[in-house]
Amino acid sequence: xxxxxxxxxxxxxxxxxxxxxxxxxxxxxxxxxxxxxxxxxxxxxxxxxxxxxxxxxxxxxxxxxxxxxxxxxxxxxxxxxxxxxxxxxxxxxxxxxxxxxxxxxxxxxxxxxxxxxxxxxxxxxxxxxxxxxxxxxxx
Length: 139
Hints:
139 residues; 2 strands; mainly alpha; two-stranded antiparallel ribbon
């Protein structure tokens, strides 16, 4: 998974969000050992001090814990991960809602757009799958 850091917001904030996203999405599994601060920083192409700050905040939120001499691990508390996931999703839904209201959409209009998007997305997925199946059949 790529680190997509932009210049419009503090790097620390973006690192924190990306690490959280990786935890709540399951990219990092509960109980999994994280790479070292230096390795994570190198991977994200950021200063190790900035990565350390983001990891310290995740520790404060109990999503990550440190074991002396062995490193940092993702929490195994599924309810804590689920709570963080809901918080993350709520933040994005609120941003989406504000933006759509600014564009003049009401709740029904937003729901219609989301449904249309999901249908189109499912059709694209179906096309990709059927295209893959055709290729496999030609082998």
